[in-house]
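PROTOCOL LOG
Step 1. Enter all chains and additional molecules of the complex.
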Amino acid sequence: MTHDLGLLFGVGFTYLVLLFLIAYAADSGRLPEKLIRHPMVYVFSLGVYATSWTYYGSVGFAQTQGYLFLTIYLGVTLAFALSPLLLQPILRLTQEYQLTSLADLFAFRYRSQLAGILVTLFMLLGTLPYIALQIRAVTDSMTVVSQSVAPRSLALIFCSTLVVFAILFGARHSTSREKHRGLVAAIAFESLVKLLALLIIGITALVGVFGGLDGLDQWLRAHPEAIERLYQPVREGPWATLLLLAFAAAFLLPRQFHMLFTENLEPKALRTASWAFPLFLLLINLPIPLILWAGESLQLKVHPDYFVLGLSLEAGPSWLPILAFIGGVSSASAMMIITTLALSSMTLNHILLPTNFPDPQVNLYRWLLLGRRLLIALIIMAGYGFYVLLEKHQGLVQLGLISFVAVVQFLPGIVGLLYWRRANRLGLILGLLAGIAIWSATLLLPLLESSGFIRTEFDIPALRLASGMDQWEFATFWSLTANTLLFVFGSLVGKQSRGEQEAASACCSESMIPLGGMVNAGSSAQFTKQLAQMLGGEAAEREVKQALSDLSLSASETRPSQLRRLRERIERNLSGLLGPQLAHMIINRRLQLDIHTQTALADSMRFIEDQLEHSRSRLRGLSGDLDNLRRYHRQVLLDLPLGVCTIDKLRTVTIWNLAMEVMTGLRARDAVGVPLHRLPEPWGHLLAGFASATDEHIYHLEMSHENSTRWFNLHKAAIPGPMPVDHPVEEARTSQVMLMEDLTNLETLEAELAHSERLASIGRLAAGVAHEIGNPVTGIASLAQNLRHEEEPTLVKESIEEILTQTQRITAIVKTLMNFSRSGGIGTDIRRFSLKEVADEAIRLVKLTHHGRQVSCENLCPKELTLEGDRQGLSQVLVNILTNACDASSPGSAVELSASEIADCMRIEVIDQGEGISDENQGYIFEPFFTTKAPGEGTGLGLAMAYKIVSDHKGAISIDSKSGSGTKVIIDLPKASQLHHEPNINY
Amino acid sequence: MRETPPPERQLDRTLALGLLIILLLSTPVMIWWTSYDSPWYVPYLLWLAIILFIAWIHSRHHDP
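Step 2. Run joint prediction.
Step 3. Record the structure below.
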């Protein structure tokens, strides 16, 4: 059974159109995001590893090398099993620093453009034969299925279609930092197709050829050598070498690196891939022995490399060869597209851009897009050129393994990158050069020689035979040994630059170097202006905006520490656009640093804490315990219900806890890293002033904020810095911690309590008030009645005068009551007043009470004594004390109120001749709700309130009493009010 | 006794897993499963066991 070449071409082309549609549907959002982000889509997209070599070549490989073909997948399994040690750190680096290829990663770590160029050139050299292999597999498969030689023009059309696909769906953006969802979806679909195709062909072999498991068993019993042929090469062949090659290829091949790291949409999907991808490889390889044996059983006439097709033609239904062919096209096209994209990105960043950077007048993004697309076309066509030139008798596996030995040369560099901080560019370059030279001599030259391109005098096969090694063992052993030795030697001999040290720290994540220095440019606008000189205006503006948005900063940002972060961010973003080395060079040249400026402690702290939070490997042992302790202390500080703000010696905020955020309305991210004086008002002035003040405590600070009055207590202390032993102590003691206590709620509560207490007092006075007002009203009524009949003008005048006197008496009582009951907090009305007047008023009020009327109250205050303070508050103090004195006094006794000046104080004494207070009760009488009165007669708040008001005036209140011999209450008040604090703050 | 934090244990397990795979695939242990009377599917069974082991190890790791 054969198929027409035109039909095959049509089917292949239709299949590629289907891929276009899938990619378009994913890119345009027609496929659900959840599906595209599903870990299994990622796993299937990694199936790009299985190329024509796997699809067709594995059977041929198994036929000649038995189970050695499994090494190509078992090595991958080992690499994925070590994912937390190997793949996850690389993924973290590529995502954090926007590195899009292995060349980017090396150029970033070893801070060497040469390293990037070497990696790129070597990748190109090692991969082009592999691309050629894919093209050959597709044309050969057409030949097998159609039984007629496929013209080269078909291969050219196939390549051209792939160029269009890769450009449309793999180079949609000018920067590789953008993900290509459509491409990932299409590649995942291709992997699914080739898996299904191979499984169906495997089932066909089992059922169609052997008639089921029993038939297979019988055939194997009849041909015991079939199983032995599989096992023997494992015991004798280069098993370990191939395992090592596949281990490296699993993540270092350009297509693998691209799908694993560059196109990774969900970092967590890598964990699923660590087992699901090896499972995919197991499933795709399961049918291989069956297909081989079925082909041998049927004595197929085709080369074992194409038993997959031959078997489907011979034993399957008519559609099976088409499906098998589609599976082959899937394998080849996926590999070619992804490899080309990866290589184009490397070539652009490491060869084209450094040698031919566009003029600032040119639109950079358009230039990059055009460059990338041009390179895609060039690379695929170069692969086509290799296909045309290479001799056909090279097996599929041979071409593939040449690429594998090429990429294994990057293994020392990648291990050094992840785990050896001392590794440097000299070692890498020496090692790579040696590896490339030996690879070329042992594998590339023989390949070119066998294809008739060159003739060499080297007799490498003779050397190999003398060593007793297999071709792959020989090439891998010598190239990798020389590479590793020179890598180690160069790293030990050479010195690292500062940039390389920083990159090594970022990659190894063992130690942390905070961002040093300050950017000379002082605003984001200056950043744009500087960058425009190299990138052009549009690109510079877009990159600065992007970085500001990434960091959630505003365009008006001027904080030095934030500008330092902005610089770092722009460099990372540019790295995704232009490659790490070029980005580093542009940033260093245009956004220069003043490295002598001291880094603020806030920045160092933030950097270290960020590093600890995102550390790829958590701290272990004692370090881990210390880190847990640090987290605990930090959480305590953050959750403390007291505002905590710490500043470094540059007066920059380093800690701003949650309570501070609530009190000030300023978020920590806006406050940390900002110099105190640049915090928004009123906090900037307040805290900067307090930091400079000599006072370490400020109590009851009143301030207006957002149309309301608020009260605070402030405290501060110096923090000894972690300075070297020989450092002067004074310098170390420049950091400070400030505590801020919000008293506003307490103040409001106290004011309400005082008001309630006054109202309660008024309630107690009510009967007296009624009596006091009732008497004059009765008098006024009598006088008014007499006036009706009185005609004598003199008597009328006298009566009117008397009425006026009585009404003035009522007015005085009402006024006194109103003054007393007025709401308002203590300290809201500070003024100077006559002490005697206040005492008179208090006595008048007390006289309204039942006990007050029975006691003689004498005001002995001198008229000239004045006091500054809260008049209403002090009136309440006197009322409360006099009320208690009257309550304690027996009817007819006297209560005296006297005042005198003692130095800066005014002493007021209230003396009664009552029953006195026992020693036991004297300890409690100023406590709220303590009363010795009968229930309903007192609230127990009177003396507590008096104590509070006197304390607020910075005064003191004391009792001198003995049970049975009267009580003397002594109040000492400063002459000048201290209710308004005037802290020693220099704004 | 101090409990080992999960990420540390995860790395330890990964290393142990890697060593186990190397032991099975690249040491004289191979002689056992490549012996003359081994059924053809033994390498696949071994491979499947390794995959299940990887899945088990990695499923026990949780993000902090």
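Step 4. Note key features.
Residues 6-25 of chain B form the longest helix (20 residues).
Chain B touches chain A at residues 2, 5, 7-8, 10-11, 14-15, 17-18, 21-22, 25-26, 30-31, 34-36, 38-40, 43-44, 47-48, 50-52, 54-55, 57-58, 61, 63-64 (CB under 8 Å).
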